[in-house]
Design goal:
single chain, 213 residues, alpha/beta, five-stranded parallel β-sheet, 11 helices, 51% helix, globular
Length: 213
């Protein structure tokens, strides 16, 4: 499965890990390359295995999912992280997204929806619910961000709006009749001007400030 999406499952419950592996391994385009029982092990395994997508539980011993995600980003690991959480843990989604998660799913997600979520974040999309986006920035951040946003060109605002819609670079290039290389340049400029770390934060900024594609 050379072209399969490589997935690492990080969860402290063995039954959950086994269940996820059993389901995902029947997907022709998804390969579970490893498991980890806590955040620290998850970071180490992600560095070793270089998965495309990490399914990351939030509450784990040794190192929780949010801190593990921060460490991956500090190490420059490019894996897309999909947070797996329960509805009662929704408050943990905000720090996870701020730390660079590509989105989140609830633990009772339909199996087919989970596979779809993995494919989606791997393709560069962001899984974000509007009610969560609204809680991600304080009013102080909002006011500061408005000033930074004025430095964006019209084309950069168009690209930012499409990022907020969950479009990948390839889809943005098609929509705006640009090359993917040009889109990547615009994305880099947007992140630099808005002082943001990644596409997820850019999407959140766009939602908060009403920039849509």
């Amino acid at each position: 499965m050379a072209d399969a999406i490589k997935v690492l499952v990080v969860d402290d419950h063995q039954v959950v890990r086994r269940g996820l592996r059993t389901f995902l391994e029947v997907q022709e385009d998804i390969e579970v390359v490893g498991e980890a029982a806590d955040g620290a092990e998850g970071v180490a395994r992600a560095e070793e295995l270089r998965p495309d997508v990490v399914l990351m539980d939030v509450k784990m011993p040794v190192l929780d999912g949010v801190e593990a995600l921060r460490r991956l980003r500090e190490l420059g690991n490019q894996a897309r992280v999909l947070i797996v959480t329960s509805f009662t843990e929704q408050r943990t989604v905000v720090p996870a997204l701020r730390a660079g998660a590509a989105g989140y799913v609830y633990k009772d997600v339909d199996p087919d929806a989970l596979a779809g979520a993995i494919r989606s974040v791997h393709a560069g999309h962001i899984l974000l619910q509007p009610e969560v986006a609204g809680a991600l920035l304080s009013e102080e951040e909002n006011n500061a961000g408005q000033g930074r946003g004025s430095s964006l060109t019209e084309r950069e605002r168009e690209v930012l709006g499409l990022i907020a819609d969950g479009r990948s670079n390839r889809e943005i290039a098609r929509a705006l009749v640009l090359s993917e290389k040009t889109v990547k340049t615009h994305v880099s400029n947007i992140l630099m001007k808005l002082d943001l770390a990644d596409r997820t934060q850019a999407a959140l900024w766009a939602v908060r400030h009403g920039v849509t594609g």
